[in-house]
Design a protein that fits this description.
With 230 residues, this protein is α/β, with parallel strands linked by helices. Helices cover 34% and strands 27% of the residues. It has a six-stranded mixed β-sheet with strand order 6-7-8-3-9-10. A four-stranded antiparallel β-sheet has the order 2-1-4-5, covered by helices on one side. Helix 3 crosses helix 4, helix 3 packs parallel to helix 5 and helix 5 packs parallel to helix 6. The structure holds adenosine-5'-diphosphate and magnesium ion.
Amino acid sequence: MSDIKLEIKDLHKFFDIPGKRLHILKGINLTVKKGEIVAILGPSGSGKSTLLHILGTLIRPTEGNVYIENTDVFSLCDEELSALRNKKIGFIFQFHYLLPEFTALENVMIPMMIQNDAKRHPERSEGSQNNAVKLLENVGLAERLSHNVNELSGGEQQRVAIARALSCNPELLLADEPTGNLDKETANSVKDILWNLVRQENKTLIIVTHNEDLAKSSDRIVHLIDGKIY
Ligand code: ADP
Ligand code: MG
């Protein structure tokens, strides 16, 4: 098997707004190997989130190709694309987008229950629950399983978001400023947790960050400036 996880070839993204066409990504080429942690740095507005959303198959590029393990992902139809996304990709955002009225455990279980079609197969819920407990233990939240997420601190919420991102055991993790809202110390502990999980299971991580410690601990730093990678 090839050790290349992700390949981006001559990627362009335009956004059409009234009276104007914005050229946001201007020919991005990047190859990321399995197990690699790549940090993307760049000024605000340079297209980092747009790039991450394309890599996560949430939006389509205007031109160019993204290969995930040799699959030309944007040649897939929307349904195939969602299936690939659910199976292979985990997201961690700056704003965690957890469901505030649900417990930490439920937030981590829900993606697995959807993937396992728990509505039709309720017997599978137990497996999802056991997995969710393990994932939350791994991020140091064994004592917080039944807290509603709005009763958790910012760092704890982001650890729940990490556990949720890992819930369907994705090989590729995409993180968009995951410590952007955290103080330095909390950011560091979230980083350590994320790095350990990624290293232990040889996952691939692409992380957009302004945090120098995170960037320095990555295997590689790339700069996105004015829509191009340097
Ligand atoms: P970054 O994450 O580096 O701060 P973004 O990728 O969020 O930058 O945005 C890059 C540029 O693209 C910004 O100027 C933003 O306003 C613009 N942009 C992002 N999404 C859209 C959209 N859906 N429609 C129009 N413009 C957009
Ligand atoms: Mg952004």
